[in-house]
Amino acid sequence: MIGSANGARVGITGLAAHVPERVYTNADLEQFVDTTDEWIVERTGIRERRFAEKHEALTDIALPAAQEALEKAGLQGKDIDLLICATVTPDMMFPTSSAIMADRLGAAEAGAYDLLAGCTGFMYALAQAYGMLAAGLSQRALVVGGDVLSKILDWSDRSTLVIFGDGAGAVVLERVERGGFLGFELGADGAGGGNLWLPGSGSRHFDEPDSFVKMNGREVFKFATRVLVSSAEKLLAECGKTVADIDVYVPHQANRRIIDHAAGKLGIPEEKVVVNVDRYGNTSSGSIPLALAEAEADGRLREGELVLMTGMGAGLTWGSALIEWTERTAA
Ligand code: COA
């Protein structure tokens, strides 16, 4: 699916992120699996990540981000009419985490649902919320992306334990006078789905106790390096932009080598690339909003700048969004 915005200006008017307190360094993981700090840093660029405590679930991590995003937009929960939560680790399948959060935020008028698209979930959710606002179905939307993958990792599997982390981010979408989203490109390749899967998680294998993430790292690596480039190129062409127009590039934070490869192939210079995978690992649906919030906190997102975001993950799925950044001035 690909499309450029046709007239409706919808932008991000509030943005925040939140991660669990507890830091696990690479050295900390050496007590669970046969690995080394040197291997993890060299192959992934990751130095540490946050893992939730036993009692913490997705909404515990995501609610502070949602609350802060609303405050930054100058809004309260009651002001939003749509809440989409992208996650593969909801508190439970139902009630949905979005319904739980809508209640906690006092968003009594909001339609609320969870969205599953692996690590690309946040990009899919942005596109959906954009469409709802552009069509006039929604006036103000809260889009949350977050995961607590530590809960579905096999803590004895070194191929997955070292790359993931927990975290969440949230954005408020509203109509804006200037800038806003220019377009989206979304895709899925179910044929590759078996390279990153959670077999015991649904109705197919519900009676099997195996509910841990399984991954064929090399295949996912090849897929990731390919789609980060192709998705960005397709979207830029659709929106009549070139790589030279991009001011800030926010790729999914899966692996430093994947990010460097994509940026290199696209021709985006290092200083335009947002990277925080070293400190958080791959936080799945939380990855892009977490990186975006950090870029904003660092003063890297300025009025009129063109920001490219591309995610990829389980499904296999991918998705890009292009936005002309607006300071928080909701129309
Ligand atoms: N510590 C030490 N050694 C490890 C290890 C770890 N945590 N994980 C794997 N190894 C070993 C392997 O067993 C293998 O040993 P062998 O050569 O004796 O068989 C060796 O390291 C190389 O393994 P390989 O899988 O080829 O490494 P890699 O360079 O491909 O790196 C990943 C592995 C997982 C870091 C990399 O493939 C990757 O990032 N893939 C994409 C994953 C991803 O992004 N997933 C989420 C998408 S949203």
Cα(first) to Cα(last) distance is: 28 Å
Q: Sheet with the most strands?
A: 5 strands, mixed
User: What is the tally of helical segments?
Assistant: 10
Helix content: 25-40%
What is the number of beta strands? 14
Shape type: globular
Helix and strand sequence: EEEHHEHEHEHEHEEEEHEHHHEE
Question: What is the third-level CATH name, the topology?
Answer: Peroxisomal Thiolase, Chain A, domain 1
**Overall mean confidence score, pLDDT:** 96
Which strand order does the major sheet show? 1-9-14-13-12
The fourth-level CATH homologous superfamily is Thiolase/Chalcone synthase
Bound molecules: coenzyme A
Number of domains: 1
CATH architecture assignment name: 3-Layer(aba) Sandwich
Class from secondary-structure proportions: alpha+beta
Low-confidence stretches: none
Task: State which percent range the strand residues make up.
Answer: 15-25%
Give structural notes:
The chain is 31% helix and 24% strand. It contains ten helices and 14 strands. The strands form four sheets. The chain has a five-stranded mixed sheet, sandwiched between helices. The protein has a five-stranded mixed sheet with strand order 2-8-7-5-6, sandwiched between helices. Helix 3 (58-72) crosses helix 4 (97-105). The longest helix is centred in the C-terminal third of the chain and has 22 residues, at 217-238. The protein is globular. The model has no long low-confidence stretch (mean pLDDT 96). The structure holds coenzyme A. The site of coenzyme A has 20 residues, from helix 2, helix 6 and helix 7.
